[in-house]
Amino acid sequence: MLDVTILLDGVAYGMVLFIISVGLTVTMGLMRIVNLAHGAFAMIGGYLATTLLSAGLPFFAAALLAAAVVGIVGAFAELTIYRPLYRKGELAQALMTFGFTFVVIAALTTVFGTGIRPLPVPPVLSGVVDIGFRTYPTYRLFLVAVGLVLAVLLWLLIDRTSYGARLRAAVDNPRMARAVGINVNLLFTVTFAGGCALAAFGCVIGADLLPLEPYYALRYLVLFLVVVGVGGIGNFKGSFVAAIALGIIDTGGKFLLPQAAAYLFYGAVIILLLLRPHGLMPAKSAA
Amino acid sequence: MSEPLADKGLAAVAPSLRLPSAWHLLPWALALLFYFTAGGYLSLGTHVLIMILFALSLDLALGQAGIITLGHAALFGFGAYAAGIFAAHLSNDPLLGLAVATVLTGLFGALVGMLILHTAGVTLMMLTLAISALLAEIANQAHGLTGGDDGLQVGRMAPLFGLFRFDLWGHTAYLYVLAVLFLWSLVAWRIMRSPFGRSLDGIRQNPRRMRAIGTPVWRRLVVAYGLSAAMAGTAGALEAQTTRAVGLGALSVLASGTVLVMLILGGTRRYYGAFLGASVYVVVQNFAAQIDPFRWMFIIGILLMAVVLFLENGLMGLADVVRRALLAVQRRSGG
Fold first, then answer.
1. Domain boundaries, chain A
2. pTM: predicted TM-score of the whole model, two decimal places
C-alpha cells in the first residue's frame, strides 16, 4: 500500500501549505496587494515558538501563543507598512514587502543566530498509529486533522457568518462594500492579522516538513505564492484544492520519480498558470 | 532630443534624453579613469560593469515595457551556463562564446515570452518565479553538464582577437566588458528613442488602449523580452568568462531580487539609473558584506523600503529633486 502512504504524506504536506498560504490569498485577493512578506510573518512565528519552547512552554501553547503574537505584529504591520501601499503599483508593493522580508530575516538572524532552529515534534505526536493495513506517523495524521478542522472552520466563518459576508463583499467590490457601510479598513486589519497568525501557526506545526532556517521566508515564498496563484487569488476553496493537489504532486514526485520531482512540480505550476491564468477557481470579482 | 514630447506621460519617461550630449561621455570617462586608478579593485569594477548591463536589460523589460518579472536571473544564469558549457566543450574563444550565449538566451527569452506574456500582473510574476525555479532545478540535476551545486569551472579564455590575453589582474577582462557594455548601451539608447520603444512606453501605461489603436501588444512584448533576455544573457556570459565560474546562485530568486534592487535604487526608465544603481549597490555591498551578510540584508531591506516610500524615482529621482531645488533658489535670487 505504498501509494496510500504517498497520498497521505502528500495530503499532510498540502495541509501545511494550505494553513500557511490561506492568509496570503486573503491579502492578495482582498487588499489587492502583492505581498511577498507572508513567509516573513510565518517565520517570526516559528522563531518565537522555539524561544517559548525552550522557556518550558508546552508545544501547543507555544504554537498558539506564537500565532497570537504574530497576529498582533501583523495588525501593526498592516496599519504602518501596508496602508501606504494600497494606492501604489504592483512593483512598489513587491519591492516594499520584499524589503520588509529582508529586514525580518536580518533581525531574526541577529537575535537567534544563523543556524537551523529545531522545532521538535512533541512526544504525543512522535509515535505511530495503526490505520488498519499499516502504521502511520501520528504527526502527519495530526497535520491532516488540523488542516481539515481549520478548513471547515474557515469555510463556516466565510460562508456562514456576517463577518464572512462582509469579507466576500469587500473582495468582490471594495467600493460598493464601503458604500453600504462596511468598515473595510477594519476588515483589512483584522483579516490581515488573522492570516498572519495562521501562517505563524502553520509554520510552527509544519516545521518538520518545512524546516525553520534563516532563509525560510524566501525559500518557501515561491511555494506559498504558487498555492495562491494556482488556486485563484482570493479564493479559499481554490487555495485548499491547490495546496492539496500540489502537496500530492510534490510528494508523489519525490517518492516515485526522485530525479524529476522538481520539474514535475514547477512544470505542473507553469502549465496550470498558462492554461488558467487566474487560477483553478478565480474569485468572482466585479471589478 | 529636438522634437517636443506632446504627451505628459512620455515627457516624464525620459528626462535624461534632454541632457546635453557632452554629459554622456562622463560615465565612460569615469570608467576609463577607473581602469587606470583601480589597482586591486579592477575585478570589482568588472563586476560593476556586468551588473550595469544586467540592470539595463531589466530596465528594458520592466522599466520600459512594464513586464513585471521576479525571475530575471533565469536569463542571466542561462547566458552564464551557455557560455560556460560552450567554453568547456566547444571553443574557448571569448567572442564566439559571447555571441552564442547572447543569441541562445535571446531565443530562449523570446520563446518563454511567447508563452508567458499573454498573462500580466501577479500571474506573470509567479510564472517568472516558477520558470527561474525550474531552470535552477535543471541546472542542479544536470550534474554532468553544469556541475550541479559544485558549480561549473570555466577554463581560461583564449586571447581576445587572438591578441590580448586575459591576464591575472583582469586588465583585458575590464576593457572587454566595458566595450561590450558600451555596444549594448548604444543599442539600449537606440531602442529607447525608437518608435518601438515609444510603443513599449504606451503598452506599459495602457495596454488596452494600445491594443485598441492597433498595436500588436503581445508581439511587441515578446520582442522586448527577447531583447532584454539577450542583453541579460550577455551579462551572464561575461560573468562566466571573467570569473571563470558559474554557480547555481546565478539563477536564484535572490539574484533576481538583487538586480531589481539595483535598478529601482538607481531609478527605472532613466537610462543612467541602471548605471548608478548597480555601481552604488555593488560597491556598498562589497564593503558591507565583508562585515556580515545578514547585516547586508538589513541594509538592502531598509534601502528598498525607503526607496518605495520616499524616493519613487530612485537615486536619479534624487538628482531631479536637487536640480529643481537649485532652480527654485536661482529663480528666487534672480527675480
1. 2-275
2. 0.82
CATH of A2-275, one of 1.10.3470.10, 3.40.50.720, 1.10.10.60, 3.90.1280.10: 1.10.3470.10
Helix (H) or strand (E) holding A247: helix A236-256
pLDDT band at A283 (very low <50, low <70, confident <90, very high): low
Q: Give the separation between CA A206 and CA A19, rounded to whole angstroms.
A: 9
CB atoms within 10 A of CB A274: 14
Q: To which H or E segment does residue A130 belong?
A: strand A128-130
Task: For residue A267, list chain B residues with Cβ-Cβ distance below 8 A.
Answer: 134
**How many CB atoms are closer than 10 A to CB B30?**
12
What grid cell was written down for A147? Answer: 488542516
**Please, where are the H alpha helices in chain B?**
8-13, 25-37, 42-58, 73-89, 94-116, 121-141, 143-146, 171-193, 195-205, 207-212, 217-243, 253-266, 272-288, 293-310, 314-334
Instruction: Identify the pLDDT of residue A284.
Output: 52
Instruction: Give the separation between CA B251 and CA B131, rounded to whole angstroms.
Output: 10
Q: What's the ipTM?
A: 0.80
CA angle B209, B210, B212 (to 5 degrees): 60
Interface of B with A (CB under 8 A): 62, 68, 70, 115-116, 118-119, 121-123, 125-127, 129-131, 133-134, 137-138, 140-141, 253-254, 257, 260-261, 264, 294-298, 300-305, 307-309, 312
Can you spell out the DSSP letters for A78-96? Answer: IIIIIGGGTTS-HHHHHHH
Write the CA distances from B17 to B14, B21, B186, B189, integer angstroms. 6, 9, 13, 9
From the list B70, B304, B308, which residue is nearest A102 (CB)? B304
Chain A residues within an 8 Å CB radius of B69: none
The H-or-E segment that residue A129 falls in is strand A128-130
Among candidates B122, B129, B301 on the partner chain, residue whose Cβ is nearest the Cβ of A28: B122
pLDDT digits (tens, 9 = 90+) for B298-333: 887 888 888 887 777 777 777 777 878 888 888 877
Least confident residue range of A87-91, B9-13, B303-307? B9-13
Chain centre to alpha carbon of residue A51: 21
Q: Which residues of B touch A96 (CB under 8 A)?
A: 304-305, 308-309
Q: Quote the minimal CA–CA distance from A61 to chain B in Å.
A: 31
**Which residues, in sequence order, are bridge partners of residue A128?**
A137
pLDDT at B57: 95
Using only C-alpha atoms, chain B has a radius of gyration, in whole angstroms, of 20
Residues of chain A that touch chain B, judged by Cβ-Cβ distance less than 8 Å: 28, 34, 81, 84-85, 88, 90-92, 94-96, 98-107, 109-110, 114, 214, 218, 221-222, 225-226, 229, 233, 259, 262-263, 266-267, 269-270, 273-274, 277-278
Chain A residues whose CB is inside 8 A of the B253 CB are 218, 221-222
